[in-house]
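Support reply, case 0932

Customer input (verbatim):
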Amino acid sequence: MKRILGAFALSLAAFAAQAQDVYMPYDRDTYHLIDRYQIKFGKQVPEMHTAVRAYGRAEVAELAEISARNAVTRADEFNAAYLLNDNWNYTDQAQNESRKPFLTHFYRNVSDLYHVDTEDFVLRVNPVIHFEVGVDNESDGVRYVNTRGAQIEGSIDDRFGFYFFVGENQARYPEYVNRRIRRDGVVPHEGFWKDFKKDGADYITARGYMNYALSKHVEVQLGHDRHFIGDGYRSLIYSDYAPPAFFLKLNTKVWKLHYMNLFQELIPVFNRRDELYPKKYMAMHRLGVNITDNFNFGLYEQVIFARGKGRFELQYLNPIIFYRSVEHGLGSPDNMLLGGDFRWNLWNRLQLYGQVALDEFVLDEVKGGNGWWGNKFGGQFGAKYIDAFGIPNLDLQGEVNAIRPYTYQYEDEFSNFQHYRQPLAHPMGANLVELVGIVRYQPIPRLHLTAKAIATKYGQDVVSATDTLNYGNNVLLSYLDRVSTYGNEIGQGVKTNQVHADLTASFQVRHNLFVDLKQVVRRVKAEGEAPDYNTSFTSFALRWNIPQRLHEF
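Our regenerated output:
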């Protein structure tokens, strides 16, 4: 697969190229600022398509320039300056020069440890540090995260862009995270890992890519990273929960259209042994249309498949064909998902958004109302309210997600919707209804306060050493082991109510250097003999050029 995609990318590089854009790493806190100003001023940047993340630094810089000209509060002035400085090589309005460089060559600007800026070469080098300590009422001893690494990015000849991130990690997680590790055999968000001391984990996180502008409107990207599709807090299509994966991506932006093709190599099985793991693949495309300057609509289609000896199905390389017709022509052996999304900005203060994901859908069975297991689909609807109730820098978000049982499951791990034993869409799988509420407030420029509550009603599966009762929650299970063909409904199985609350105060000491104080409270109440859990986790963190590590499942 890598040889095929590599040859494909190199063949594309034979064409003349235009100025290249590197992507802004996906950090939910930073992307909230971008979303905030896109809601306020998005009509002035109509070509920005927000449902495919990460965003290009050039378009973020353009939005930041508009935000800086229209800022009315000190917090907005600070945020616009932050975004301009973080994307200084794509704007002439950044005020990024350091007053006191370190040892002459370091921190000559406020955003980078070291940088080079010439006519044909840009290089940015930064350290990555995440030190977090906390206490958990369900665990003995200190819980911690210890990450050290580096981030490098830049461009060559305004044609090639490149990005590289690596971090060495040791961690001891709170018990609710350890329960997920024991269930799935993996560290959430991560790939290969090893035991560390008594109950810790040791792993390396690596991401990187190279991208090349084939023309003014077409770009190719090859690398190893995560992706996120949608405008919501969750994604029912493709989220950043699973670890990075090898990919080839084509982005075409012209007129009011954004057409994205994504081809990925995934790992279906992980057993923690040093051996060559089998492979499966995903092919996806999404067409987004800015129908008006404030309304975007997208359609997507994706297929997950595996072939003998790790072969890629070449027919899925066709970037514009209807995948369902290809899949039928091959004998219908693969897992297809279809769906759509929308984003509607209103009055420069409000955004409505949503998604529909169709894993399988038979209208007659839906009309029959018999709870047929094969009607596998999910829906999302949400809203963002900026400067709520006239209070500057108070932003609210509410979201509801509902996913029917057995959605994302398939016959085996080679075609189900997971990578490295982790869901590719919603981190809790399926068979659930979820409400998300978020309050964000920035009382002073450097301080961000976030209160978050996620209430989920779902049905647990019953898995033991001798038996499996698959009620449709865990995407790792096979739908061949389903409990019933008819009579299925959301929440079936071991009925469980869960509330995850998170209160975080984050202070930006200097550019991309944050101090966090966090309190997480979780309540899990299940019917029958399934255990209940009451979790309280308090932590303090120092982060430098790295986003918060969130475990919201």
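We compared this against your earlier run and they match. Two observations from our side: Confidence is low (pLDDT under 50) at residues 8-18. Residues 330 and 347 are 48 Å apart (CA to CA). Please reopen the case if you see a mismatch on your end.
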